[in-house]
Fold this protein.
Amino acid sequence: QVRLVESGGGLVQAGGSLRLSCAASGSIFSIKVMGWYRQAPGQQRELVAEITNGGSTNYTDSVKGRFTISRVNAKNTVYLQMNSLKPDDTAVYYCNAKSDWFAFWGQGTQVTVSS
């Protein structure tokens, strides 16, 4: 089992920045990929960014050039630096960790971008 605890959400004006953190504990040796998803009201949950154990990253097109995902393995923590935020980025952001067999989720953190 893997436990994920997110922090760093909040309210920010358009053009501002936020950094989300996700700390993993438990059976972290099994994790292959960590990432961030988001879900806006009335929308499906979507991948924002993910990073593999080897450091390879993948971003959804709408955040490329604005968001950066990073991982500090020694701290079992993944970060999402979000710059140039837009009102369309408003959503609940969920941390995700994948092993070969399971996917684990954090409780979510609200990000609200005002225009």
Remarks:
- The chain has a mean pLDDT of 95.
- The first strand starts at residue 2 and ends at 7.
